[in-house]
Amino acid sequence: WYQRRVREAVVSTQSTGKWETWCLPLNNTDKAAFVKSTILPGPGSLFRGTFKVYGPPADTWVKLTMFSKGSIWVNNHNIGRYWTSVGPQKHLYVPGVWLKEGDNEVIVFEVERIPEKREFLGVELVDVPNVGECHY
């Protein structure tokens, strides 16, 4: 579900050679094929996990401290982009109406770096947001 194009990249009038660009239509994460792997993933990886909601769903925020830069979906809803080293947001808002009682899915597309603590890759759901400060 992607397209590939090869282009020549030019920086300061100097050719850097051929670059491959890939269009990833991430408007429907149901089309992504996930497999369990023993190979450590690199930047540009999609991660999928689940969490349970007990009782009626309520508004919540996804805490992003484990990841660096990318996008997050909850139940196929894009809740936003994050860049934790720059900010300002440290948490992304998830409306309660996008959650359901029982199993829910979270997908993370990390483009910059993969967390060092790979024995547990995940996000944390919190009920109080940290709006943070901008560091650029």
Q: Which tags fit this structure?
A:
mainly beta; 136 residues; 9 strands; single chain; globular; three-stranded antiparallel sheet; four-stranded antiparallel sheet; disordered N terminus
Q: Would you mind describing this structure in some detail?
A:
- This protein is an all-beta fold and 136 residues long.
- 0% of the residues lie in helices and 45% in strands.
- The chain has strands spanning 3-11, 14-23, 45-53, 60-63, 69-74, 77-83, 91-94, 102-110, 124-126.
- A hairpin with a 2-residue loop joins strand 5 (69-74) and strand 6 (77-83).
Give the neighbour order of strands across the main sheet. Answer: 3-8-5-6
Structural class: mainly beta
Number of helices: 0
Work out the strand percent: 35-45%
Secondary structure tally: strands: 9
- What would you report as the Rg, rounded to the nearest angstrom? 17 Å
Low-confidence stretches: 1-6
- Quote the distance from N terminus to C terminus: 35 Å
Note the overall shape.
globular
Relative helix content: under 10%
Give the SSE string: EEEEEEEEE
The overall pLDDT, averaged over residues, is 77
Query: Major sheet: size, sense and barrel closure?
Result: 4 strands, antiparallel
